[in-house]
């Protein structure tokens, strides 16, 4: 899974629908195929609409990784 810290949809318009649908925040377990929501901080910028959003989830990325490791009994590789 790729974690995007910042998305500018003027520079990368292909990510606009992924953010809107939430798929940019989903990770699918390679073992069982279960989709999991991965919460992480991200800056979303749409200059054409003069909109900038800063997503600050309740759960940090590290907390999400620990939760997934516990719930799915998987070891997550950290880059």
Summarize this structure briefly.
The protein has 79 residues and is an alpha+beta fold.
Walk me through the structure.
- By secondary structure, the protein is an alpha+beta fold.
- Helices cover 23% and strands 24% of the residues.
- It contains 2 helices and 5 strands, in the order βαββββα.
- A 3-stranded mixed sheet has the order 1-4-5, with no helix packed on it. A two-stranded antiparallel sheet has the order 2-3.
- A hairpin with a 4-residue loop joins strand 4 and strand 5.
- The longest helix is centred in the C-terminal third of the chain and has 12 residues, at 61-72.
- The termini are close together.
- The mean pLDDT is 84.
Features of this protein?
79 residues, 23% helix, elongated, single chain, two-stranded antiparallel ribbon, alpha+beta
Secondary structure elements and their pairing?
Layout: E1 6-8, H1 16-21, E2 26-28, E3 35-37, E4 42-46, E5 51-55, H2 61-72
Parallel strand pairs: 1-4
Antiparallel strand pairs: 2-3, 4-5
**How would you sum up the global shape?**
elongated
Strand composition percent: 15-25%
Order of helices and strands: EHEEEEH
Helical proportion? 10-25%
* Rg for CA atoms: 14 Å
């Amino acid at each position: 899974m790729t974690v995007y810290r910042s998305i500018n949809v003027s520079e990368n318009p292909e990510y606009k629908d992924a953010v809107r649908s939430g798929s940019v925040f989903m990770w699918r377990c390679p073992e069982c195929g279960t989709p999991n929501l991965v919460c992480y901080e991200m800056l979303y910028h749409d200059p054409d609409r003069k909109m900038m959003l800063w997503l600050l989830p309740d759960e940090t990325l590290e907390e999400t990784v620990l939760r997934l490791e516990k719930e799915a009994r998987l070891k997550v590789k950290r880059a």
